[in-house]
Amino acid sequence: MKPKVSVVRSDGHYDGVSKALSLIEDQVKESLKGRRQVLIKPNFVSTRRQLAATHVDAARAVLDTITKYYSGRLIIGEGPASSSLKEGLVNFGYLELRDEYGVEFVDLNEDDYIEVEGFDSHFRPLRFRISKTAVESDYRVSLAIPKTHDTVIVTLTIKNMVVGSLVDHDKSKVHQGYKGINMNIAKLARYVMPNLGVVDGYVGMEGGGPVSGDPVDLRVAAASLHPISLDAVMTKIMGFDPSEIGYLYHLNRWGFGAINLDEVEVLGVPVGEVMRRFRPHPNYSEMLRWRL
Length: 292
Prior knowledge:
The protein is of the alpha/beta class.
């Protein structure tokens, strides 16, 4: 059976995510059965620029869907690259979610951790600290936004979950050249693979992403229980070839998910109707050297 990815037109952060989840709601309901701890991982690569961060209304849409079928422990966790989680929660209006939904907040940079193995730039073993909360949560939701990236071309649900789960300075340590970072993201994804991927593409980012790029009025949202296929679909919508994204290529090659869109069932709006070529990061051609 082909993995299903929902794609919808979006009239707002809440609207789009809600509609995308509604198309796979039966799957989400089934997948939540028996779960004990749900981790929702937004993107706070910047705690000051809203364009670079997941909007709180997208988180509300996810919470409204999940809490229909789940009443256990709910965590919103993130490890911002250059600041504290608290700053992002305050600046982006997330603190209200504690009273609205009873969520807990966990700064993954300050979390207990386990050590896992990745690679350095010469593909020698290198140890990484990864959040224990991220690893031990038995239901992980990666709530991302579609952005170009300065090292791996695009960042979506897989990269959001993997790099955000690395503790503190290990985020920068994952950058081991174009080959190394793509291999590291793919390898580390096996420890924190999202159970549900959601992309709020009401507004995306092109050019100098993932922080300093320009807004894209995309007006699309997407969701899937198959985050690798979801990222492939969104990569195509952004105007890129999924096989050019090194970490997606590796995960596909290792059998973790389909990135050939002929092998994916798209629910809702056809990809071709919402494609919008994002201007790549200026270093785009260099990033393709991960293949060499």
